[in-house]
Design brief:
Length: 144
């Protein structure tokens, strides 16, 4: 009886171990495309309230096959990315334009995840800075 329990225990162990090593789906396998950014972080410093909160992250396809950006997501709705939807050919550059809502005053640090067909995990871009407080309403406007 003990041999039978040990046998079933070992069989269950191997069944679990063999199932846990699933192959990567075809979309996640390396296609020969590669992405390289000039920079993955940008510090705006101090930005005026309602000022320009845009930055362009420049990247290049350093692989041998066309690069496709499958999705670009920001960590919150206050940061809006724009990216090329068409494939980027070998050796060519592309731009991801990121716009932060500068109507929100205070310090910020936001991340943007870039998903591609390279077979690697997402590349994380970071923007940070501080938006000045809005100007106070003038006393003349409150007297009227």
């Amino acid at each position: 009886m003990r041999k039978m329990i040990a046998f079933y225990g070992i069989a269950a162990f191997f069944a679990v171990v063999s199932c846990s090593q699933t192959p990567q789906p075809a979309a996640a396998q390396n296609t020969g495309a590669a992405i390289e950014f000039e920079t993955t972080e940008h510090d705006f410093g101090t930005i005026p309230f309602k000022g320009d909160g845009t930055f362009e992250f420049v990247f290049k396809n350093t692989g041998k096959d066309p690069l496709l950006l499958t999705n670009v997501r920001s960590s919150c709705g206050c940061t809006v990315p724009e990216w090329p939807k068409e494939p980027i050919n070998k050796g060519k550059q592309g731009v991801i334009k990121v716009r932060y809502n500068t109507r929100i005053s205070g310090s910020f640090a936001k991340s943007i995840s870039v998903y591609t067909n390279t077979g690697e995990g997402p590349v994380v871009l970071v923007i940070r800075g501080k938006v000045e407080a809005p100007p106070a309403a003038s006393e003349d406007a409150t007297d009227k």
